[in-house]
Amino acid sequence: MKNEIKIALVTGGSRGLGKNMALELAKKGLHLILTYNNNEEKAKEVIKEIERLGQQAIAVQLNVTEFNNFEEFFATVKKSIKSKFGVEKIDYLINNAGIGINVPFAKTTEEQLDTIYNIQFKGTYLLTQRALNILNDGGGIVNVSTGLTRFALNGFSVYASMKSAIETLTKYQAKELGDRKIRSNVIAPGAIETDFGGGAVRDNEKMNNFIASNTVLGRVGLPDDIGSVVAFLCTDDAKWINAQRIEVSGGQMI
């Protein structure tokens, strides 16, 4: 019996956490669609790594703030997967694309507020809406939040507020898409060593040490700590997990 093709779309899949998510999904036997904003070469490198794992992948350019282009984006995705995989729909959507910002509440500008809103919430909201036409019944959505919705660290008022909205949105998606058997869950990583936010956690030794000392497992997170959890949520092993916030932080700030 031929194995059923399963496809996951990972936004921001060319680097950082998104790259690790894509690789872990490939290890679970899924084919991938990666989006990248402006670095096509990085996306192609990830595709090569996925192919070495025995799976196939497609990279498609996407700016999550160019809302009017979402319909064209999904038309491209549909055409690409039909050509490469012989199917017209995907099974999982992982809303990973985003940026970080660290600025005190009193100094946050309207422009910074709008930027984070558009990328972290509005983009995710509208992209997922458009994805419903190409998402198989019985599939799943994985949104990405942050541990900062549970605990507070200076300078993250805008970022964490938008991620709190994503957590609420996840529940509503699960509630309203239940008749299609589409599950929606949200993961909440703790501080991770990547180039996210200018590499602050990775490159700032003082911040790194502070976070490690306030995490019960004694270190900051790594991309490898996150991708496998996302991959798990995109398998039948997680078929009864729905509307959940899963924190992946090693026990940070407990």
What is the CATH class name? Answer: Alpha Beta
* Count of discrete alpha- or pi-helical segments spanning 4 or more residues: 8
Mean pLDDT: 94
The backbone outline, from C-alpha atoms, is: globular
The secondary structure category is alpha/beta
Instruction: Please describe the biggest sheet, giving its number of strands, its sense, and whether it closes into a barrel.
Output: 7 strands, parallel
* CATH topology-level name: Rossmann fold
Q: CATH superfamily, please? A: NAD(P)-binding Rossmann-like Domain
Oligomer: single chain
Rg, nearest Å: 18 Å
Helix content: 40-55%
What does this structure look like?
- This protein has 254 residues and is an alpha/beta fold.
- The protein has one domain (7-248): NAD(P)-binding Rossmann-like Domain (Rossmann fold), CATH 3.40.50.720.
- The protein is built from eight helices and seven strands; from the N terminus they run βαβαβαβαβαβαααβ.
- It has helices at 16-27, 40-52, 70-85, 110-131, 157-176, 200-203, 205-213, 224-233; strands at 7-10, 31-36, 57-61, 90-95, 135-144, 183-189, 245-248.
- It has a seven-stranded parallel β-sheet, sandwiched between helices.
- The longest helix is centred in the middle third of the chain and has 22 residues, at 110-131.
- The protein is globular, with a radius of gyration of 18 Å.
- The model has no long low-confidence stretch (mean pLDDT 94).
Give a quick summary of the entry.
The protein is 42% helix and 17% strand.
